[in-house]
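Researcher: Here's the sequence for the chain we discussed earlier.
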Amino acid sequence: MEKTVEKTVEKTVEKTVEKILALLRSNSRITQKEIMSETRLSRRGVEWNLKELKKAGRIRRIGSDRSGNWEMLE
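Model: Thanks. This is the structure I predict for it:
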């Protein structure tokens, strides 16, 4: 039972990450608020996912929070 839950959580996280990456690809200037709306994640959930993507070297932020944009590194 535990392994099934782990696999389900892993797949859900994977789908969320892919959704966020797709949003960033389609609009590099997307805001966290817009990501929250599209993914139905909390602000903290969006922040955590973006931090993990940055840590994994998949994205980076260029410029300021207000006028910057996201760059895909993969």
